[in-house]
Specification:
The chain is mainly beta. Helices cover about 5% and strands about 30% of the residues. The strands form 41 sheets. A 5-stranded antiparallel beta sheet has the order 15-13-99-98-97, with no helix packed on it. Strands 23-22-17-87-90 form a 5-stranded mixed beta sheet, with no helix packed on it. A 3-stranded antiparallel beta sheet has the order 1-4-5, with no helix packed on it. Strand 70 and strand 71 form a beta hairpin. The protein is elongated and about 205 Å long. It starts with 7 loop residues before the first helix and ends in a 5-residue tail after the last helix. The relative contact order is 0.07.
Length: about 1600
């Protein structure tokens, strides 16, 4: 193009432009970089996502922080960043809550196969030879978070909230590559006699496949030519000829182009003989059957040729037999299965949006129009499923939660009946009980919606709710009612007007009162009346109370004087009031009195009036009070005399009212009702904690009662003490009954139903809240039922086959062309149409019949048109009738027809039987028990429940029942039949007993004993004793004493003033002086004492032992009558009180005053006394005494539940003496607050079980081993000392043994060649209806095909191609037996759970010329269980001529090829180095050269053999001298091995001379010198000719020094 000179300018121009282009590129890229830097200098950087917050589930929200960063790394205002590229700040998430742990879990797959770790860069992969046991690898597995309910996958973050993610990878070991292991060769096959060339072979089988990259299996076959002694002359070899048939061609319809115009069809069978076989052919019209299955009948052909035993083809005439094989036959043209188009997709199974994140599924179907026939393509899948995308527009899925009704009322009777089934109501019950509620599942609604919706959610199926259901029962307590505890009556008050504010009339009342010590409890607790009254006259509301002073003389020291009276006005309650209220004028301020003078009689002051002798007056006696005074000193002369004895006592009547007391009696308060007069208050919370709605009133009836008489007129009782009859109360709110909405109707079945059974649907609703306080009552209907409408009965479909068509043969033209015959006979096919019809013979789709039956009747069958030479028969007659005897047989006959009667071959009864005989059916059946006895099954109890709770005892838990054992029924021939032939139920049964548990039974509590102390605190005891001991697991007894009793003690308290001593006045002092003249001085006086009950209105005496013996008053005392001259002092006054502290420095004083001075002016006795306050002598301290808390005391009507623990309070003096509580109360001591507390006695609740569920379906549809079971569940577990739950919560029962009918495939027949000697044929097997009992031990027996139903329509399983090898063909052998199961092991430890076993097919070569066409050998491996670990070791035989056999052996003793490490293989040939070439030498086992027997080794200095020297005298032992092959084998190799160590070996194993050889040689040399020198000395005489000694002598000596060498 260009010259060299012209190239200079363009090159320069190109260099300049290239530099300019580079400069422009650099400038452009720099500008672009600056521009990009300017655009992208601010970027968004998000922070990590925060925690998921919000509602539990998919409604959570995650947020994160966003920052704007400058490209140089500093933060910048957000406005600098591009808002369009702003990452999202929030995203939705699944918020995990604790309760999700019950819904989600990690699902872990099995570890996948261990894979070698890939070699890192620069590291060489490990060599196989370097592997010793195993190589390092990695294995992985799939870990995903799934929802427990439906195993759908969710995001892993949910499960990570509860547990860390399990590892997905782990290190593992890959065993070293293991080569294929094969067995030993079998013996060589035998050679036939003859001169032709033959091969013999031997085979071996594969034991273990190659693993982990090991070498494949070696050849499993070895062949070699047989040694024939005589070879055949040339051209006269003996061959066998076989007629070989080829495979049938595909079925085809003939085309016109296959037919020659000359009417001849030429078919080449490719024989070596160039022989052309021609057949006549006529025109052919194919058969087209106008039927629903348009079946075309065509024809198929096969080749036939003659083959020689050396594998070469020969002329067909050499193989022609009497009957030539069939080469053409009729066939059915293959038709593929035909289906309808796909139906439209079903709606997506996911109709709402849930948090499971899983897609839904949808499906579509197609139906079969025509089944495959003639080997056509089988039907494809008829159902297709795919995931469907959930649209965001779907509504959220409803959520369900457990709901409960309110607790029903507490029922004590349930618990009492449980403890004693014979218990019946005898009165009010209280204490511990059981209450129940309904638990149901309902759709949970959002709070906002729930507040608007008044309707309670309707119940749904319980399976919709997740998590444990709330408890449906609990223990409860009915409060027990206790009556008030009241004090004893006070003394009767004074007669007072009924109302002192408005005193009227002259009649009043005297009252006595008592007060409440302990309030009543419970709804039925009752308090007795607290006030009693008796009518009286002249009532006074106010009266003067006068106190007298001492007598003050008016003049002098004795005589008349006066007392100053102090009057106080008091009301009827003893309180001081203004004097103006007292009706009468106050009493005088002075009262006359007299002070005795020196000689006057002196009397004591009047005593206090005694207590009234009776609390009321009756017809026989009135109450009396007395007072008295005594003579202190007698009168002297001239003095005032003493009054008579009668004047020393005064009497007055008291308590003169009648004993018929009056009191107001009340009835219990009525219910709280509305009062129109009371203004309704707003709803509030009452004292019971329940909502109240306003204020109402309660009323009760009050009436006047007279003691021992009954109700009297109301005006008889004082109106002032009348209890109230009306009181305000808090009205409880009306509670309307609340019920749920009805549940959805149970769905009617969408599919059709068999038979005429009516199907019902139902719905129900649950009472959430019972009506109360006048609210709207609950509806009567809680359950509704109705029949399903439009339920279609399932039509029963059946196959309706038409009659078989005539037998259709190969068309005549084809038959003549191929077979050369025109006779229309031989094998053909016949077809029939099969339609699907309903019960009323209406045509239906084929799919309907296929759904209801196992298969389809055959559409095609082979048939035969008899040829002229064939035997023809009449139709079989009917079977002869059977007699009743089971041993009889029945038979049927047929006869030869036409010319067949004269043919000799037709007379052969073995080939053509004319009579068929079979055993008659027998109705004798044999039953045999099968399996174990079932559990003892009790008859079903009543299923009613009381208030929603199943009562213990409704379902029997013990007693008589039945146990069952299944029977296997068989006919006389041992074939299983339906058990109904032997027993109506299929069982034998027998009675059984479940022993009932009996609890420990104690008697009822005895009544409480009396208090052990009459004053203060004591103990009361009650007891119960053993009536029946527990057995059969009953509740045990409490701890009993030696008398089999159990005691209960509670503290008790007796008022100390309940029984008191009453004393009468002292009698006059009786002087001891016997001189009657003297009437003064010392004496005694007596009085009467008695013990009385303060509560007794009569005041009658009781036994003295009831009163305190420590405080018994004296009945006598000493006294003195002062003489007239003596000084008389008054009686001592009472001691002043000591301080409560009983300070010993403090004192107490008492005084008296002078009543009469003495005559002789002697000083009178002291008028005052002082003594110190000494503790426990004259001064006492008091304190409250508390007992310990008592045991929990229940009401008499309760057995458990809430009770009361009490303690008692008493007052104790400091010296330990109990006194009345009033002593402590007077001193205002601090009183303990709580004298009783509530407690709980645990209820002994027996385990409560549900009823038995229905029996499950049998675990097997037929045969032995089927089990049915039923279960029950624990409703309420055992509590306290209740009877524990039984261990048997499930029961098993063997199913009746029904026969199993199934189609069983028979064994494959021998390969049928249909006229040929070898080649391609067909194997067939039959399909038989068999009966068996499902056990592997019993073999199946053939029965009538009708019992198995329709036969499966699969022609391919009944027929398969096969081949018979011709002589000379190379062919595969049959499969070897499966090898034993072997595990892959490392160092004897199993590497895997599943093992492997193998089998193989070797090929057989019959002619070396055909070995190129041999098939490949086949190896097959399958997994197995129960494998063992085997190890492989090298074994070797003993050496023989320096050779030995080396082989590999498995640990179970089997010799194998492969398995042992090649590098550890022992040597099989032993060689000496250098080789043993000296005469009479051979290579020894030590690997060195030795001499034969009879020769001695002459060794060189280097330890190698020099030569072999003959041992003298060995000629006589020529018989022992053997050739080399015989000499080196010891007679007994074991003995040789034993003595091998004793022989002297001059050389080491490595070929070096041993040290002892040098020593022996040196010693021998010195001995030789010594002998030479000695002989020289002995033979010193000189001789001219001295002969030298023989050369062998020293050598012999040298040799003799090492004879054992």
């Amino acid at each position: 193009m260009f010259s060299k000179g012209n190239l200079a300018v363009p090159c320069w121009l190109w260099r300049s432009m290239r530099k300019l282009f580079l400069l422009l590129s650099v400038l452009l890229s720099h500008a672009a970089h600056l521009e990009g830097k300017k655009d992208n200098q601010f970027i968004w950087k998000p922070g990590p996502w925060g925690r998921c917050t919000g509602d539990c589930g998919p409604g959570g929200v995650q947020s994160r922080a966003l920052w704007c960063f400058h490209a140089e790394g500093r933060t910048s205002p957000v406005s600098n960043c591009d808002e369009n590229h702003r990452p999202p700040k929030e995203r939705s998430c699944f918020r995990v809550c604790d309760w999700h742990s019950d819904l989600f879990q990690w699902e872990v797959s099995d570890w996948h196969r261990c894979v070698l770790v890939p070699a890192s860069a620069g590291q060489a992969p490990p060599r196989t030879a370097a592997c010793v046991t195993a190589q390092h690898g990695l294995q992985d597995r799939t870990v995903r978070c799934v929802q427990k309910l439906n195993r759908t996958r969710v995001v892993n973050e949910i499960c990570e909230h509860f547990a860390p993610q399990p590892p997905t990878e782990q290190a593992c070991l890959v065993p070293c590559p293991r080569d294929c292991i094969v067995s030993e060769f079998s013996p060589w096959s035998e050679c036939r006699e003859g001169c032709e060339k033959q091969l013999q072979h031997r085979t071996r089988a594969a034991i273990a496949p190659p693993l982990y990259g090991g070498s494949p299996c070696p050849n499993l076959t070895e062949s070699r030519a047989c040694d024939t002694p005589i070879s055949c002359p040339l051209g006269e070899e003996e061959y066998t000829f076989s007629l070989k048939v080829g495979p049938w061609s595909k079925c085809r319809l003939p085309h016109l182009k296959e037919i020659n115009l000359s009417g001849r069809a030429v078919l080449d069978f490719s024989s070596d003989s160039k022989e052309r076989v021609t057949f006549r052919h006529q025109s052919y019209k194919p058969h087209h059957l106008s039927r629903p299955w348009d079946l075309d009948i065509g024809y198929q052909t096969r080749q036939v040729w003659c083959t020689r035993s050396d594998g070469k083809n020969a002329m067909l005439s050499l193989c022609v037999q009497d009957s030539f094989p069939l080469t053409v036959q009729s066939c059915i043209m293959p038709k593929d299965c035909e289906t309808t188009e796909w139906s439209s997709w079903s709606p997506c199974s996911k109709t709402c949006r849930s948090g499971s994140l899983s897609p839904g599924f949808r499906s579509r179907r197609r139906n079969v129009k025509h089944v495959a026939i003639g080997g056509g393509k089988e039907c494809p899948e008829l159902l297709e499923k795919e995931a469907c995308i959930v649209e965001e527009l779907l509504q959220p899925c409803p959520r369900y939660a457990w709901r409960t009704s309110e607790w029903k009322e507490c029922q004590v009777s349930l618990l009492l009946k449980q403890q004693d089934p014979h218990w019946h109501v005898t009165g009010p019950v209280c204490g511990g009980g059981i209450q129940t509620r309904d638990v149901y599942c309902a759709q949970s609604t959002p709070v906002s919606t729930a507040q608007k919706a008044k309707e309670v959610s309707r119940p749904v199926k319980k399976i919709s709710c997740l998590g444990p259901a709330p408890s449906a029962s609990q223990l409860c307590n009915l409060p027990c009612s206790t009556d008030c505890v009241v004090s004893s009556w006070s003394a009767w008050g004074l007669c007072a007007h009924e109302s002192c504010r408005d005193p009227q009339g002259r009649k009043g009342f005297r009252l006595r009162r008592r007060h409440v010590l302990m309030e009543s409890t419970g709804p039925a607790g009752h308090c007795p009346h607290l006030v009693e009254s008796v009518p009286c006259e002249d009532p006074m509301c106010y009266r003067w109370l006068v106190s007298e002073g001492i007598c003050i003389p008016d003049h002098g020291k004795c005589g008349l004087g006066h007392r100053i009276l102090k009057a106080v006005c008091q009301n009827d309650r003893g309180e001081d009031v203004s004097g103006s209220l007292c009706p009468a004028s106050p009493p005088p301020e002075r009262m006359a009195c007299e002070i005795p003078c020196r000689m006057d009689c002196v009397l004591s002051e009047w005593t206090e009036w005694s207590s009234c002798s009776q609390s009321c007056s009756n017809k026989n006696s009135d109450g009396k009070q007395t007072r008295s005074r005594t003579i202190l000193a007698l009168a002297g002369e001239g003095g005032k005399p003493c009054p008579p004895n009668q004047a020393l006592q005064e009497y007055r009547s008291c308590n003169d009212h009648s004993c018929m007391q009056l009191y107001w009696e009340t009835l219990p308060w009525g219910p709280c009702s509305e009062d129109t007069l009371v203004t309704a208050l707003n709803a509030t919370i009452g004292w019971t904690g329940e909502a109240t709605c306003g204020v109402g009133i309660q009323t009760r009836r009050v009436f006047c009662v007279k003691n021992h008489v009954g109700q009297v007129m109301a005006k008889r009782c004082p109106d002032s003490t009348r209890p109230e009859t009306v009181r305000p109360c808090l009205l409880p709110c009306k509670k309307d009954c609340i019920v749920t909405a009805f549940s959805e109707w149970t769905p009617c079945p969408r599919s059709c139903q068999p038979g005429n059974a009516t199907v019902k649907q139902s719905r129900y609703r649950i009472i959430i809240q019972e009506a109360a306080n006048g609210g709207q009552e609950c509806p009567d209907t809680l359950f509704e039922e109705r029949e399903c409408e439009d339920i279609s009965l399932c039509p029963i479909y059946r196959w309706k086959p038409q009659k078989w068509s005539p037998c259709i043969l190969v068309p005549e033209s084809v038959r003549q062309a191929i077979m050369g015959t025109s006779e229309a006979c031989g094998k053909g096919v016949q077809t029939r149409a099969v339609s699907c019809v309903s019960d009323d013979n209406q045509s239906a789709e084929m799919m309907e019949c296929l759904k209801q039956t196992n298969g389809m009747p055959p559409l095609v069958q082979e048939c035969t048109v008899p040829c002229r030479d064939d035997c023809t028969f009449t139709v079989w007659s009917k079977f002869t009738p059977c007699s009743t005897n089971c041993e009889t047989t029945r038979s049927r006959r047929r006869q030869l027809t036409g010319k067949s009667r004269k043919k000799e071959k037709c007379q052969d009864s073995d080939l053509y039987p004319l009579i068929e005989t079979e055993l008659c059916p027998c109705d004798v059946f044999i039953s045999q028990p099968y399996g174990n006895w079932s559990d003892c099954i009790l008859p079903e109890g009543r299923r009613e429940s009381q208030r929603g709770y199943r009562v213990q005892g409704d379902s029997k838990e013990c007693g008589k029942g039945l146990r069952f054992r299944a029977i296997a029924c068989s006919d006389k021939n041992g074939r299983p039949v339906d058990p109904s032939h032997c027993s109506s139920s299929g069982y034998i049964q027998e009675e059984c007993v479940i022993p009932c548990p009996f609890d420990c039974k104690l008697s009822d509590w005895s009544s409480w004993g009396s208090c052990s102390s009459s004053c203060g605190i004591g103990v009361r005891i009650r007891s119960k004793w053993l009536k029946e001991k527990p057995y059969n697991g009953g509740r045990p007894c409490p701890r009993l004493d030696l008398k089999n009793q159990v005691h209960e003690a509670v503290p008790c308290y007796s008022e100390c003033n309940q029984y008191s001593w009453v004393v009468e006045h002292w009698s006059p002092c009786k002087i001891h002086n016997e001189l009657r003249s003297l009437r003064c001085g010392g004496g005694t006086q007596s009085r009467k004492i008695r013990c009385v009950n303060a509560a007794d209105s009569e005041g009658g005496a009781v036994d003295n032992s009831l009163c305190s013996q420590d405080e018994i008053p004296p009945e006598t005392q000493s006294c003195s009558l002062l003489c007239p001259s003596e000084c008389v002092m008054s009686e001592w006054g009472s001691w002043t009180k000591c301080p409560q502290s009983c300070d010993p420095h403090s004192t107490q004083r008492r005084t008296r005053h002078l009543l009469r001075p003495s005559l002789n002016s002697r000083t009178c006795a002291e008028d005052s006394q002082v003594r110190p306050c000494l503790l426990n002598e004259n001064c006492f301290q008091f304190q409250y005494n508390l007992t310990e808390w008592s045991t929990c005391q229940l009401s008499e009507n309760a057995t458990c539940g809430r009770g009361v623990r009490t303690r008692l309070l008493s007052c104790v003096r400091s010296d330990g003496k109990p006194v009345g509580v009033d002593q402590c109360e007077q001193r205002n001591l601090e009183k303990p607050q709580r004298m009783s507390i509530q407690c709980l006695v645990e209820c002994a609740v027996n385990c409560q079980l549900s009823g038995w569920t229905a029996w499950t379906e049998c675990s097997k549809t037929c045969g032995h081993g089927g089990q049915m079971s039923r279960a029950r569940f624990v409703i309420m577990p055992t509590q306290g000392e209740g009877r524990p739950c039984p261990t048997e919560l499930t029961q098993q029962k063997t199913c009746p043994v029904t026969p199993c009918y199934s189609w069983v495939l028979g064994n494959w027949s021998a390969c049928k060649l249909e006229g040929g000697d070898c080649g391609e044929g067909v194997q067939i097997r039959s399909l038989s209806c068999m009966v068996h009992n499902g056990s592997s031990s019993q073999s199946a027996v053939s029965v009538d095909a009708a019992l198995c139903g329709e036969m499966p329509f699969q022609d391919s399983i009944l027929k398969q191609p096969c081949s018979v090898p011709c002589p000379g063909d190379c062919h595969l052998m049959e499969w070897s037996e499966w090898s034993t199961c072997e595990l892959t092991c490392i160092n004897g430890r199993s590497f895997e759970t599943m093992g492997r076993q193998s089998r193989s097919r070797a090929f057989i070569i019959q002619s070396f010329e055909n070995q190129d066409s041999c098939p490949q050998q086949v190896l097959e491996t399958r997994p197995c269980t129960g494998g063992k670990c085997y190890h492989y070791t090298w074994k070797a035989s003993l050496w023989n001529n320096n050779e030995r056999t080396v082989w590999c052996q498995r640990s179970d003793g089997i010799n194998v090829t492969g398995g042992c490490a090649p590098q550890a293989r022992p040597a099989a040939i032993r060689q000496c180095n250098p080789a043993c070439k000296k005469p009479f030498s051979y290579c020894t086992q030590g690997g060195v050269c030795g001499c034969e027997k009879g020769y001695r080794e002459i060794m060189r200095s280097n330890g190698f053999l020099d030569y072999c020297m003959k041992v003298p005298g060995s000629e006589e032992k020529k018989a022992d001298v053997k050739n080399l092959a015989g000499k080196n084998r010891p007679v007994n190799s074991k003995i040789h091995d034993i003595f091998k160590g004793w022989s002297l070996h001059p050389l080491d194993p490595d070929g070096r001379v041993k040290i002892w050889v040098y020593g022996v040689s040196g010693g021998g040399f010195l001995i030789m010198i010594f002998l030479v020198f000695t002989s020289y000395l002995l033979c010193k005489k000189p001789k001219p000719h001295q002969s030298t000694p023989p050369q062998q002598k020293p050598l012999t000596l040298a040799y003799d020094g090492d004879l054992d060498m």
